[in-house]
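Re: the request from the purification team.
They wanted to know what the chain is likely to look like in 3D before they choose a buffer screen. I agreed to run a prediction and write the result into the notebook, where they can find it.
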Amino acid sequence: MAGVKPKKALGQHFLTDLGVAQRIAATLDAYPDYPLLEVGPGMGVLTQFLLERHPADMVSVAEIDTESIDWLKTHLPEPQPRIIEGDFLQMNLNELYPGDGKFCVIGNYPYNISSQIFFKVLDYKDRVVCCSGMLQREVAERLAAGPGTKARGILSVLLQAWYDVEYLFTVSEHVFNPPPKVKSGVIRMVRNSVTDLGCDEALFKTVVKTTFGQRRKTIRNSVRALLPPGTNLPDDCPLGQKRPEQLSVAQFIELTNSVETLRKA
């Protein structure tokens, strides 16, 4: 595809299959009344189909590459979306979307920062009603991984506490310029009805990160670092003998409350 030269430093792999782009755009069809923000539009392969499905004044695109921005301005049809130049990871989304209204996020996310993008979405969980898009298949599988699977990790639990995460389909490496060395996966995350976890949210994050940071250890051994000296989970605690990838969100909440009780005691 002629146009913008892909930049390795930005993790750019431009999608060339229009059918795949249409399928990704369709992941937000259930949210026609919400503004949407596309991350990393590149040459607008996905953007053009978002504009077919949503009014231009409801669509914003965030792009850090000045060459891509120039391409978008000269090649996207009128009326054009709001084009925001800058690093998505550094953007204040509350300033981009003043007030407390909900919005959606979508994109063909750069592989090298995809986890950071989803951590940022998590920071805006009370406003991002749906987030979908394409990323490296292994990362996509991790975000959707359920309890008892090897792929389950920190982001799996933190995201699934607030979102219903669904792995939708796999994309071949041969429909990109340049082709990446791995396949891609498309996911969709829909905000669930949870407004309060039922535990200390900051401690919940700490427990999840601490246990997965020592994922070969049992929970009883890995949480010891979070407890006062000489204190630990009771020997008969059913969660203590498990490993972090085996725990559901509800079990992590239960574990967090146990840790908090022991710390206060």
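For the purification team: The mean pLDDT is 95.
Please add any questions underneath this entry.
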